[in-house]
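Reproducibility note. Readers wishing to regenerate the assembly model reported in the main text can use the exact inputs given here. Chain order matters: entities are listed in the order in which they were concatenated for prediction.
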Amino acid sequence: MKRIRIIGKISLSLLLAVQLSCVTQLENPLELEPQLVISGQFSNSPGSRAIRVLSVEGLDGKGTQLEATGSIYKDGQVFAEMVVNAEGELELPPSLVLEEGAEYFAEVITNGNKVYRSEPQIVQPKLETMTVSFEVEEDIESSRFLGLTVNRSRIEFFAHVDLPDPQVEKRYYRWVVDEAWNYIESNQDDTCYLSNTIFDNTSSLVTNASGLLQSGEARVSILDKRLDNTFAHTHFINVYLHSLDAKTFEFYEKSERLTSGTGTIYDEVPGPFRGNLSNVDDPEEVVLGWVEFFLVDTLRYKLRRDGINTTVPTQCDDIPGGGPCPPQIPPPGGGLPPPCQCNACAAVLGQDALSPPDYWVD
Amino acid sequence: MQRILLLFFFFLTVLFATPISAQGQDEALLNTKITANFSGQNLLQVFYDLEQRYPVQFFYKEEWIPRTGINANFSAEPLGAVLEKLMDDAGLKYVQFGPNALIVGRMSDIVTLESFSYADYLADVDAVNNQEKSIINKLSIVGDSTLRPLPTRAKISGTIYDVESEDVLPGAQIIFPELKKQTFADSEGNFEIEIPTGKHEVSIEAPGHEKVSTFLQAYSDADWDIPLYYTAYQLNEVLLQAESAGQNKTSAEAGRVNISIVDIKKRPALLGEVDIVNTVLLLPGVSTVGESASGFNVRGGNVDQNLIMQAGNIIFNSSHLFGFFSVFNPDVVQNVSLYKGHIPAQYGGRVSSVLDVEVKDGSFRTVKGTGSIGLFSSKFSLNGPIVKEQSSFVIALRGAYPNVLTGYIDNVPEVSQSSSYYGDATIKLTQKLGDNGKIALFGYGSKDFFRFSEDFGFSWDNYAGSLTWTQIYNSQLSSKIEAKAGRYFSNFFNATGVEGTTNDAGVNNYGFRANVQFVPNRKHNFNFGIEGNYYDILDNETRPFGDNSVVIPRTAPKDQGLELGLYVNDDFDLNDFIRFSAGLRFSSFANVGPFDVSIYEENRIRTDDTRINTISYGSGEQIETFANIEPRISLRIRFDETSSMKASYNRVNQYLHLISNTASTTPIDIWQVSNNYFPAQRADNYSLGFFKDFGVKTWKTSLEFFYRDMTGLVVTKDFASLLGKPAIETEVLNAVGYAYGSEFSINRSFGDLDLELSFTYARTFRKADGNPEGVTVNNGEFFPADFDSPININFSAKWQQRSTRTFGINFLFRSGRPVSAPEGVFPLYPSLLVPTFTERNTLRIPDYHRLDFSYTFDDGLVNKRKFKTDLTFSVYNAYGRKNPFSVFFRREGLEYRAFTLSVLGTILPFVSYNFRF
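Running the prediction on these inputs yields the following structure tokens for the assembly.
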């Protein structure tokens, strides 16, 4: 007898809206030994002219600054003795200027008369004048489950560069971005200036040296962040373009790869990576750090609220210590509502926040 | 009458139940009036006498029966009373099975035997016995009774198959206890055995099926197809245990495991989907990097060192959906064999193990279907005759759409915007060629896709097809000839600004295989043949992806190679106790063009900077060749019916490498053939195992040791970049490795409760070795492989309540795998912290352990023959442990913190509702 047997199976999953994976902080995974760290950056810009010598234990990068002296060598000759600002903090005198094409290295002598040197670096020529543009994009984030929709805007900054043929010239680009804005308290007499360093722009490293990128104009995303209420005020986006050599570029690229893990199977196996310093008498000694000599091009992008063609939200989430704003009421007769008035800026950030950055222009 | 006890599994069923009276016994038999006068006969002779004069049969093991003389007279006394008197004195008990059958056992072993209710049992098996095809306790008459003179011997051949599915049953065992003859069905379910003509008792056993005891009246050579029933009643589960352990002791192949698809389907299932690879992972010696990892590791071997075959086709990536599932659709799988120790000479090309997944033929008699519809996945399969009894088809489709669920995870936009799915299709057409041959066309295709938000994603495809001709020429000679082709293709895309890329990789495979099986006598089973595989590694294509990408489209050419293998293998019995599987395989590999081979400075590490030249080879031009002899031998010494020892040694060469710079194998890793810079991988595998049953085959134990020495490996350099890399040899270092370990397992069946426990201790190490300029990994020291997990413990229990309830538990424990960890961070400036990592694999993530359970109402909710249902509840990760898959470090504010990622860090309950009509 011929018959058809149909075996039906209906799987009724109880799994609804369950987030399957989770990330948990692991306390003290390793007993870390104290590590000697020597790191510093030298450019002709203020704020990037010092070396720090410290003993670091743990993953917070904080440590004990160690007594040390140091010198900067230029083309094999002592260029300058560094000034000891504080224990473990050595600074290049302001009057000394790095010269394009010259070779520099740093020498640090610790309290135990151990001598450490960085690998020599040739200061690369400053890259072409930087141009930056931005775009505002409004995303509609909808909740399929509840049927709600939320409009959120993002602002993305692009650097425009001309990538030459690597056979002609190899270039190594690294952009660093930070921002600052003023924050108006309820007391209108005080203006509070907030600044924020923006890390982790994965696309802020570009080189044509690998030969993988086409020559010609490239549009490089250097910042992508949600438009928050900070943009309701005068806002500066500061873009710094560093001129690097190949080794320094490789250093940043590797450090980026080391910190881009998310724990999934696609994470690369990390490798040991210690920097560019060594003990002159004992190359096997582990010393961490990177000392870098470079020139920098700076561009400050000033944004006002009315220069951004979108609605700026009125939450204070991005202001340290900030909380939800009270409902914003547009002034009679129309116009923009007053800026968000939340916690006291000075109380949160200290009196320094009352002083504007030196580049600030209202 | 002396007789081997055939119905061993019934003992297992009834042991340790609660005592009852003789209510369950068949009153008719036990009330049979016996008149006898025994004077000095022993109990064996008494049984024989009773069997001759009364309609009763005794089943027992001879060694259980004392040989002391009996002096007793009985006059029209009930059989039950007679036996009680005889057996009490001998320390024996009996239980009735069947209208005329009595099982006799030692009192110590059957102390609770009385609990067995034959009436209840009959009720359970009644449905099976009443079906027309059942041969239980029936006399089957075969051959031509009109022949004169009647032949003295008869050659009986046929096929053993499952009645419901009509799947053939490879490995089924046919035993003629009186004749002391037995044979096994081959991979097609076919058997052949020569016996004296006449009436013989015969039993047939097959994993997952009822054990049948019946009678065969053979007059002459004849075909005898044997139908077996997969039964839902409790004995079925017991049989699985007994069978697998028994085979383990009797086969000559150390480390071979056959897994019944029935057993696989009874396991608690992740997301409600039974899966073959997930079941394989429960075996001792098999491990994985973790949930979501592709592939599996066997006895310290890499993922790529497993030869994974489906219907004879090489599968290059056995994973679906990040590795949660495998590419094998259980609805079309016939049988699964894992060779983790001894690898017979028929197999070659991978040094660690062989996972051979056979696909069933469609039914030649009736059309049948299976299917499921679920929130997570659906599948459907259909098989049946094209021309009845001549040709058949199988077609199966499967798909999963987890994005339907993840779309509701609103609190994580990246997840809700992500997309993933997979689907696969299997088809097999089979045409019989007379009574002794068949030809089969097999095809398989699958597609996996995953996109994470708008940022990146990947996909991979598997395709395989083969044409197989199987022919049996006579009782001694058969052949199987296969032609096959396959393709594995992967794509990765990453929309990262100016460097946004999409990258294609993969491998095409074309092969053939001709195997001849020659069985000259009952002591030898020869297999010899030739196998060829051509590997065409697809060029690694990189193209721009995303609006801002300025990536130059480029191609990293890949080379090709032809692998040939000639082999001969003999399974032979030296005597009743010693059995060998010995073979020799000659393998060769030719790396051929078209390809441009890079030449590097002598004694310099291979980098882009040390490349000094390239040599171009034309299409088919030979670049590099390899040739190797591979001895394979395995020995089994059976000490007695309860214990044996196995030892094996084999050498295997592998001419393929899977290059990965991640801790876990991923779908986008790159295949590479052996050439000037990628040597042939070689493994020398040693194993030694002891197998012992304690008690009356109730405690089944095994203890195995293994050692594997590996050369010709490669490991990636620190910070290796692989995708789109033209000369990938610049990213790897030559390496060696070794692995060792021990595996202990113990099984116990308490009738309706089966317990399995396995414990594995194993280590596996790698060392970058012999590279110029002292370039190495971990200072040239051995370091643990990414999947080195020293301790693995698996525990499973199945409790079958009567015929309709099954409760199953799995518990797994694995040592945490090694990872690299930061030994510190250094501030470049206050806002930028750079981590520095230790040497490779110096930290272990926390241990992994998990409990799953399932509860099945089998055929109980709607108790009608034509409309059956079952309902399964299963819980994966029952206590919701956040098992870490990995440890990674990321910046939180101005400091780095360590985090663990738990892939399935929560309780996952599921319900499956099944129905049949």
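We highlight two features of this model. Chain B touches chain A through 108 residues (CB under 8 Å). The mean pLDDT of chain B is 80.
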